[in-house]
Design goal:
Blueprint (H helix, E strand, L loop, with lengths): L7 E5 L3 H13 L3 E5 L2 H9 L6 E5 L7 H10 L7 E5 L15 E4 L4 H12 L5
Parallel strand pairs: 1-2, 1-3, 3-4, 4-5
Helix pairs in contact: 2-3
């Protein structure tokens, strides 16, 4: 039996433990996950032809942070999908022009709230 295609989420998180937890949680929510360590790897994956349904970006990562990723995407015509930004600090959305980022995830994150935000942006019912 052929099911609906699983949406693809690119996760950019430099802390391996948090990245692994996000992969586990998102895969359990029936999402395909491409996990990378920083923003440069996000842009490389997109330039390589990856077409994600959502980007989940840690605000602060080595080499290229979420602000740099969004600047790179804006220079290419904008993000191909909705973007959620994760940060342990307040005011993370203030780093971005209005409308560039669709949501914010506070760290430490609540799994149910995270899945709910992702489901809303993907336009699907919560798993």
């Amino acid at each position: 039996m052929v099911g609906r295609p699983r949406p693809t989420v690119v996760v950019s998180e430099d802390e391996p433990e948090i990245r692994e937890l996000l992969v586990l949680v998102l895969e359990r929510a029936d999402l395909r996950v491409v996990a990378v360590g920083d923003g440069r790897e996000v842009l490389e994956a997109l330039e390589g032809g990856l077409l994600p349904d959502l980007l989940l970006l840690d605000l602060h990562t080595p080499r290229l942070d979420a602000v740099g990723v969004m600047a790179g995407l804006e220079a290419r015509g904008g993000s191909p999908c909705p973007v959620l930004v994760m940060s342990g600090g307040a005011g993370a959305l203030e780093a971005f022009p209005a409308g560039v980022v669709q949501g914010f995830v506070s760290k430490p994150f609540d799994v149910g709230r995270l899945i709910g935000q992702i489901a809303q942006l993907l336009g699907r019912a919560r798993p």
